[in-house]
Amino acid sequence: MSELILLKPSKLLEEKILEYKQEYLDFEETSINGSCGLYHYNNFDEWLETVLSIEKDKLRNDVHASTFFSVRKSDNRIIGTIQLRHFLTDELEKHGGHIGYGVRPTERKKGYGKQQLLLALEIAKDMKIPKVMITCDKDNIASSQTAISCGGILTDENIYKDKEQQIYWITLC
């Protein structure tokens, strides 16, 4: 049974989300995967408006996407972020995929990546997405192991933005 639940971003979570972001800054990381660009926003309300509009009305990279925070049930701590694109464009099918995810630096290597990915795959099934694509940098062993542990099959490797990238597909139905 999962220790995590997925919650959509909201004003009620603002303090916890900003604390989550701060940890990435403290660890001098330059992005927060699966967070719809949280790292680049200085105004929480602007970020939240963007996240909510991308899910419903506004397209980003020509697709709708849902963003979630994985929250540990025992203490309500945000553990990670995960974004699910509702469909893929030709470009996203080459370099992007359906799902992007990240786990906060102090909670890595504890199995949370797999737990949050499994929860997102259930949402994808409910959305009737037949199979999900996940990409990761080839040197990101944790991310590739997470994809594989959830049924991911490596189907391709390529170069994107001067980095070796792997493409995994997970069949859902």
UniProtKB/TrEMBL annotation:
Annotated N-acetyltransferase domain residues:
15-173
Q: Does Transmembrane count among this protein's keywords?
A: no
Q: Which molecular-function annotation in GO is an example for this chain?
A: acyltransferase activity, transferring groups other than amino-acyl groups
Is Transferase among this UniProt entry's keywords?
yes
Listed SUPFAM superfamilies: Acyl-CoA N-acyltransferases (Nat)
A Pfam family that this protein carries is Acetyltransf_1
Q: Which PROSITE patterns match?
A: GNAT (PS51186)
Q: Which Gene3D superfamilies match?
A: 3.40.630.30
Q: Tell me where on the tree of life, at the top rank, the source sits.
A: Bacteria
Keywords of the record, alphabetical order, are: Transferase
* Protein name, UniProt field: GNAT family acetyltransferase
Q: Give the source species.
A: Romboutsia weinsteinii
